[in-house]
Amino acid sequence: VTLTMLGMWPLLLFWALATPCQGLLETVGTLARIDKDELGKAIQNSLVGGPIVQNVLGTVTSVNQGLLGSGGLLGGGGLLSYGGVFGVVEELSGLKIEELTLPKVSLKLLPGFGVQLNLHTKVGLHGSGPLGDLLQLAAEVNVSSRVALGVSARGTPILILKRCSTLLGHISLTSGLLPPSLFGVVEQTLFKVLPELLCPVVDSVLHVLNEFLGAVLCLVPLGALGSVEFTLATLPLISNQYIELDINPIVKSVAGDIIDFPKPPKPIRVPPKEDHTSQVTVPLYLFNTVFGLLQTNGALDLDITPELVPSKVPLTTTDLAALVPEALRKLPPGQQLLLSLRVKEAPTVTLQKKKATVSIPADIHVLFYPPKGTPEALLELNGVMTLNAQLAPSATKLHLSLSLERLSVTLASSFAHAFDVSRLEDWLSDVVRVAYVPKLNVNLDVGIPLPKVLNVNFANAALEIIENAVVLTVAS
After folding, report:
1. Which segments constitute the Lipid-binding serum glycoprotein C-terminal domain (predicted)?
2. Residue 150 to residue 15: CA distance in whole angstroms
C-alpha cells in the first residue's frame, strides 16, 4: 500500500489522543459505527474471494499465477527454489512453497491506535530429497501485525501496516526422508524468509480493506434533483468494540451548487451500540435537504384534473357547490374542476421517537372549465398537508412512502363571500390521497442515500426513529 507518511503522522498523533463518541452527534453528519466483527468478516472475505488469493497467495491448481507461479517470487530461481536460498544445500533441489492454507483471521481493536491483526496459516513445501525422492513438509505459521487507523490524503479512513512479524510453529515432514542436519537448515531458513513472504499478505489485505473504506468518499446521485457527496467530518475514532466515522453529507444541485438547509438546533443523542452490531445514524438534515430539493425543482407541484382521480372522487362544480350550498350555489353546474397545488416553501420533516412526519405547505387554487374559454378561478386556499412517513432501508438507501394524515385549509380568496372552508377538507383530502400522494411517492424513489461503509449491507437493518435522526442497526 502506497502511503504519504509525512502528511499522515500529524493526523495519527492527533487522532490517537481522541476518545470515542459518548453519544452526542454535534454535527449534522451521518455517524457510522463499524463493529470489529464486521472488520474481521471483511478481512476473511478478502482472503476468500478477493485478488489476494490469486495475486499473492497463488493457488495449487494454478501454479503459474501470483507469487507461487513458476515465474514468481517462489518459483524457479526464487527464494525457496533451486538456485535460491536452498541452492547452497546441494542435497535439496527445487524446494518451494506449493500450498498455503487459507489463513484464519483474529483481530483486536486497539483504542487510540488501530488494530492487532493475526493470520494463522499452514505452509506446504514440496521438493526433492537427498535421495531424489519426493520431499513434502508442512509448517504452521502465525503472522502478527499492528495496523494503525488514520486518514489518507484523499480524506478517507485508511489502515496502515506499522509492524509485521511471523512466528513459526510446528514443522512436520509428511513425505520423504530428511536428515536432522538438513531439517535444521530448513527450519532456520524458513525463520528468515517467511516474514518477507507472508507479510505482503497482510499488506494486500489492507489494500482491499482500504478500497472498501475509501468508498465512504462517494458521490450518490439523487435522480434529476442533484447528488450527495460523503466526506469525513472528523478523524476516525476507535474503541474496544468498534470504529466510529463521522461522515459529512454535502448535497449539491444538478448545477453543482452546494445546498445548505437549516440544521437541527441541538446535538443528536445517539443511542449506544450493542456488541456484534454495526450502526448508521441518518440525520434529519438529509431528509430536509431531499424535500428541499424536491420543492425547489418544482417536483411537489401538481395540477389535478378529473383524469387523475377515479370516478368515485367528485371533481365538478356541482359536487363542490353541494358541500357549501349557501356560499357556492351560483356556480354553473356540471363543469369540471382543476386543482392547482403549488408548494412555495420547503416542507418540514419531523423525526421523533418512533414516528416520522412531513408537513407540506401548499397554495391550492380551485378553478373550473367553462364550456368555452380558459379556466376561471373560484377559490384560493392556504393548505397544510401532514403526511406520515413509512421508512424502509435497502442496501444503499433509506426509502420513504408517504400517506396523508390530515389536510387543513384556510380561505385566502373566493368569488363568493367568506364561508367555513373546513367543510371542504374531507373532499380535498380524498383528492390529495388519490392524485397527489401517489405522484409524491414516485418522486421520493430517489430515497435518502446511505454511505458505503466497509460493504456493510443495511437492507435488513433494524430501524429506530429517534429525535432528529434515524438509526439503522445490523447484526455483524
Report:
1. 274-474
2. 7
Indicate if the alpha-carbon torsion angle 284, 286, 290, 296 is positive or negative: positive
User: Of 155, 185, 214, which residue is a domain's last?
Assistant: 214
Domain end residue (candidates: 214, 247, 278): 214
The residue ranges of DSSP E strands in 152-266, in sequence order, are 157-175, 219-221, 226-232, 237-238, 242-253
Higher pLDDT, 163 or 197: 163
Q: Whole-model pTM?
A: 0.80
What's phi and psi for 166, nearest 5 deg?
-125, 145
What residue type is assigned to position 429 of the chain?
A: S
Residue 179, domain member (yes or no): yes
Whether the CA torsion 23, 24, 28, 29 is positive or negative: it is: negative
**CATH number of the domain bearing residue 459:** 3.15.20.10
Q: Which three cell numbers stand for residue 109?
A: 481493536
CA-closest candidate to residue 144, choices 111, 108, 177? 108
Identity of the residue numbered 164: C
* CB contact set of 135 (below 8 Å; sequence gap of 6+): 92, 95, 125, 126, 127, 128, 129, 173, 175, 176, 177, 178
Task: Please state the domain count of the chain.
Answer: 2
In angstroms, the CA 82 to CA 338 distance is 89
Q: Has residue 14 been placed in a domain?
A: no
Q: What is the pLDDT of residues 10-22, one digit of tens each?
A: 344 334 334 444 4
CB 246 within 8 A of CB 233: yes
Signed CA dihedral, 236, 453, 390, 385: sign only = positive
Residue 330, pLDDT score: 83
Report the SS3 class of residue 360.
strand
